[in-house]
Amino acid sequence: MVLKQMTKYGKEILALIEASHDHLTAEQVFHALRERCPGVALATVYNNLNRLWQEERIRKISVEGMPDRYDRIRRHDHVVCKGCGRLLDVDLGDLTAQLERAAGRPILAYDLKLIDLCQACREKEKER
Amino acid sequence: MVLKQMTKYGKEILALIEASHDHLTAEQVFHALRERCPGVALATVYNNLNRLWQEERIRKISVEGMPDRYDRIRRHDHVVCKGCGRLLDVDLGDLTAQLERAAGRPILAYDLKLIDLCQACREKEKER
DNA sequence: TAATGAAATTAGAATCATTCTAAAATGGTG
DNA sequence: CACCATTTTAGAATGATTCTAATTTCATTA
Q1: Where do the CATH 3.30.1490.190 domains begin and end in chain A?
Q2: In this predicted structure, what is the pLDDT of residue B113?
């Protein structure tokens, strides 16, 4: 895929996502962007997020029952809390070769989520 | 978690999912169930899918941009086509211990998707 | 500089999956 | 049977995202 020149908002949004260590939803990106570009439309945010995603400049993370979240592309994995969906970064290194061997077939990439229960959710669990 | 007795539709839906080697959406479960139970409501399907999921009797798989799909619980992983979202089963065995070691923390479970491009999508890719 | 055309942006409607609501049906248990 | 909890139901509501068609922007060419 040939990467096209980025647009004004494309650049802004990419910068926002790269700078953030959270995992922003489209809505959160929209709010953050508004501070710098008051007039911008929500559709523009979705347009650009989709474009950036297709160009593989950002990652999209989906967890059941929550809005998609966007993340910088640099290789890393995630720990998702089973209770509240809280997402943390973790890096297990590049497992591609290993997984290909185990699967017996070549892959383009993989998506690995570790599931745990965060401190807060563990407390709540106990109460019951 | 103590498993409760299953309800009439709960059983039907669980059986449907266990029997199917596809990865059914709620809508597909609804259609299939209708053949055996013509009057059943879509809400009932969602109710039961959610209950079964909470009781960990079925799995829920979410891939960005598509409706959630449901799967039997037996341990296995998935290969997702990057182009069309087609989902195949693959079993890499239980990597829990290995992943815990790599992550340096205990986990409850994990969710691993291998990404590839299916034959059909590879053809299409070429055409461009 | 004016004209052209492609791509980006916009506002709002539309869609789709899913959840919610409140009422009705069902199913044990005493 | 009477009771109460649970399940089911139909349809409305919600929330995230996409679509649409008009408008704006911007680079390129005449």
Answers
A1: 77-127
A2: 95
CA distance A55 to chain B (A): 13
Which candidate in B2, B92, B107 is best for mutational testing of the A interface (most A CBs within 10 A)?
A: B107
Token pair, residue B39, equals 């009057």
DSSP assignment of A31-79 equals: HHHHHHSTT--HHHHHHHHHHHHHTTSEEEE--TTS--EEEE-SS-EEE
**Residue B3: which H helix or E strand, with range?**
none
Answer whether CATH 3.30.70.360 is correct for domain A77-127: no
Residue B39 near chain A (CB below 8 Å): no
pLDDT in tens, A59-82: 999 888 889 999 999 999 999 998
**Which residues belong to CATH 1.10.10.10 in chain B?**
8-71
Taking domain A8-71, whether its CATH number is 3.40.50.740 is answered by: no
pTM: 0.87
Q: Give start and end residues of each alpha helix (H) in B5-41.
A: 8-19, 26-36
User: What integer best gives the mean pLDDT of chain A?
Assistant: 91
pLDDT score of A1 more than 70: no
Rg over alpha carbons for chain A, rounded to the nearest Å, is 17
Using the beta-carbon criterion (under 8 Å), do A114 and B99 form an inter-chain contact?
yes
